[in-house]
Amino acid sequence: MRIIVNHVSRMSMGHICAAGIQQDGDKCVRPVGGIGERMMAWEFARTFRLGNEVDCGEPRHARIQRPHVEDRRVNLSELRVRGRLQVDGFWRLLSRIAKDRLCDIFGSALQSHGGTCVRRPGRGNSSLGCLRVSSAGTRPALSCRGNDVRLQLDTDLGPCDIKVNDLRFYYANGEWGTKSDLVQRVGYHIRGGETTILGVGLTRPWQEAHGGERLCWLQITGIFLEGNPYLEKR
């Protein structure tokens, strides 16, 4: 199985989560290691560079916990990079699979909650997708808040304030830390109206507060500008 990587997000304690589109279709796949290994060490960031064509070997079905139906168990030692899409080809891929509404990606059970969006675990047929940023309404606003990056965005479920876990905003050249210069540069282009597509996903279930309900929270796994989807310095 080969995928084109289009989601790479930071996780806890120096781990990452990556996913991509199967080369022979539009199906999204999230490679995971052995049983219980749903995160990968940061060393795999080079393998799962955005746009990379990654040969994952022969996948096995992981134990599915909806809505995370994209999980496939792979042997991490067998991963091989076979190439990388050029900028134009990567943007065409994103444009082909992107949807206009969050509910088109995650279904009608997605709901507004606490200024963002959530879905209850145990149901659903998708936890990953790509969203076109609408040119109507208020311009999205990208900003740093403490150690996090967040995007304020008008959606089909109303205004949302969403955590950005796109790895590029936290890790570069072997160093961890919020990349405020990148936040400013990308934010400038978004505010200026450049066509933008977002990688979006639902987290594994977790409680926001003690005694609260375990929910799957909306996150941004990638920010892609039409003129520079890889966000490379020029």
Number of helices: 3
Order of helices and strands: EEEEEEEEHHEEEEEEEEHEEE
Q: Indicate the radius of gyration in whole angstroms.
A: 17 Å
| Gap between N and C termini | 33 Å
The CATH class of the largest domain is Mainly Beta
Overall mean confidence score, pLDDT: 91
Q: What general outline do the C-alpha atoms trace?
A: globular
Strand content: 35-45%
Kindly describe this structure.
The chain is mainly beta. The chain has two domains: 2-88, no CATH class; 98-225, Beta Barrel (OB fold (Dihydrolipoamide Acetyltransferase, E2P)). The chain has helices spanning 87-97, 102-106, 180-191, and strands at 2-10, 15-22, 28-32, 40-41, 52-55, 60-61, 71-73, 80-84, 111-113, 116-119, 128-132, 141-145, 148-155, 158-164, 171-172, 175-176, 196-202, 206-207, 214-225. Strands 1, 2, 3, 4, 5, 6, 7 and 8 form an eight-stranded mixed β-sheet that branches. β2 and β3 form a beta hairpin. The relative contact order is 0.17. The model has no long low-confidence stretch (mean pLDDT 91).
